[in-house]
Amino acid sequence: MLHVERGGDGPLLVALHGLGATGEVWKDVVDGWHGSWLVPDLPGHGRSQPIERYSFGSLASAVADVIPREPVSIIGHSLGGVVAFALASGWFGVNVKNCVGVGIKVRWTDEELEKAAALAAKPGKVFATKEEAAERASKMAGVRLEHGVSEVDGSWTPSLDMRAFGVGRPDMKSLFLASRANMVLAAGENDPMSPQEHLKELVPEPVVFAGAGHNVHVESPSPVIDLLFQLAT
């Protein structure tokens, strides 16, 4: 079901991308990691198959199926961060030692949820060229993607299953209470989706990446790698 990339040798790091992206966004981070790594495309993204219903639990269950039953560290961005926290609960049989959520949106208004539900009900746009589809996929992800499109009957469309937008509002407080791992919340200093005052509702001192925006793992991977090293030692 899932497209998975693996590499390295040693302590295992699992990296989960955000909504609309693919595992390729973690390239610079895993290149700097000192151990082994596992990076999937989430269901309905990139080169992975869609699933019947999108929820944080269904996404976590799909990811759990490809994670070895050994102690792991997990880092997730945005949607992937919530999935990482769900895995840290132990409910899915994964032994998570350290869990880092980057750029998670913890406050949602009713209007934002309604907009997301409306997007989930729309069909994916189809384009005449691969380049046009890639531009659309990259816009939805917020970063440039190479593996975010699919060919359909001679045309091209973003690979993202639009129904994934309907995943809903995460219950972050419950996920923190359920966690068995060392939990870290982090965000770029200039991330409009994950401002520090929102994160402080959950943790007293979130990690702040100076000068970075929402996609800090792409914009400035070095401090992300440094944080992972600190947690692993």
Strand content: 15-25%
What best-fitting shape do the alpha-carbon axes yield? Answer: globular
Number of strands: 9
CATH superfamily of the largest domain: Alpha/Beta hydrolase fold, catalytic domain
The Cα radius of gyration reads: 17 Å
- Approximately how much helix is present in the residues? 25-40%
Instruction: Quote the distance from N terminus to C terminus.
Output: 34 Å
* Poorly predicted residue ranges: none
Order of helices and strands: EEHEHEHEHHEEHEHEHH
The DSSP helix count reads 9
CATH fold-type name of the largest domain = Rossmann fold
Mean pLDDT score: 96
Biggest sheet: strands side by side, in what order? Answer: 1-3-2-4-5-8-9
The CATH class of the largest domain is identified as Alpha Beta
Name of the CATH architecture of the largest domain? 3-Layer(aba) Sandwich
The description of the largest β-sheet is: 7 strands, mixed
Tell me the count of domains: 2
Helix-strand makeup class: alpha/beta
Describe the overall structure.
The protein folds into 2 domains: 4-108 and 164-232, Alpha/Beta hydrolase fold, catalytic domain (Rossmann fold, 3-Layer(aba) Sandwich); 112-158, no CATH class. The strands form 2 sheets. It has a 7-stranded mixed beta sheet, sandwiched between helices. Strands 6-7 form a two-stranded antiparallel ribbon. Helix 2 (56-64) packs across helix 3 (79-87). The mean pLDDT is 96. The chain is built from 9 helices and 9 strands. It is an alpha/beta fold and 233 residues long. It is globular. 31% of the residues lie in helices and 19% in strands.
